[in-house]
Write a structure and sequence with these properties.
alpha+beta, Chalcone isomerase, six-stranded antiparallel β-sheet, 6 strands, 21% strand, globular, binds heme C, Cytochrome_P460_sp, Cytochrome P460 domain-containing protein, Cytochrome_P460
Length: 167
């Protein structure tokens, strides 16, 4: 019995070891009971630093927001999201991440807003998990954030994304 148990343990360990490189982000976060902003911050800054993510095609580098007061933006998206944009898949898959940095006119980062597709989190809102972070990782708003949703719902037909058509 004990012997059998040990073998299972070894498989479990091997499974855990290969997780970070082997599977997509969705699976990693879903292993935990419930997604929350702290866990997501750790993921996007330590495990898979977002600064290494690709840009939204056509939005490389810094650009100006269409919303007053016209902050300077930088938008990073993970590979899952990039695949959706490139191949016009119409809807982002579980695990997709859109991370927008907001800078002041004089180049100071002051806000990071994130959309994370969390499986089963909020089907009515396309399962987007919304977070507004300060640059030090403190979450000011997270989850089903009404203020984010109430504006982005205007582009619900584009899976809540403003930056470009994904269809
Ligand atoms: C009043 C409207 C409005 C509100 C409120 C708003 N957004 Fe946005 N958001 C936009 C627009 C417009 C863009 C496209 C970039 C731009 O022009 O600023 C955008 C872009 C984004 C993007 C890049 C992906 C995309 O949709 O193009 C993310 C991520 C994002 N917002 C997250 C958030 C979060 C998180 C909140 C709440 C804390 C929020 N937004 C609140 C209007 C809004």
């Amino acid at each position: 019995m004990i012997h059998k148990y040990r073998i299972y343990n070894i498989f479990y360990l091997a499974f855990l070891l290969f997780l970070p490189s082997g599977v997509g982000i969705g699976e990693i976060l879903e292993n935990k009971d419930k997604i929350h902003a702290h866990m997501l911050w750790h993921y996007i800054t330590r495990e898979k630093p977002y600064k290494n993510y690709p840009a939204w095609p056509g939005k490389e580098g810094f650009y100006e927001s269409t919303m007053p007061p016209g902050n300077i933006l930088k938008l990073y998206i993970n590979e899952l999201a990039l695949d959706t944009v490139l191949h016009k898949k119409g809807v982002f898959p579980d695990g997709a991440l859109l991370i927008k940095e907001n800078y002041t006119d004089n180049g100071e980062l002051f806000l990071i807003t994130v959309m994370y597709k969390a499986k089963g989190f909020n089907p009515a809102g396309h399962n987007w998990y919304w977070v507004k972070y300060k640059p030090d990782g403190e979450a000011r708003l997270e989850g089903k954030v009404d203020v984010c949703i109430s504006c982005h719902v205007g582009v619900a037909g584009n899976d809540y994304a403003f930056t470009g058509s994904i269809k």
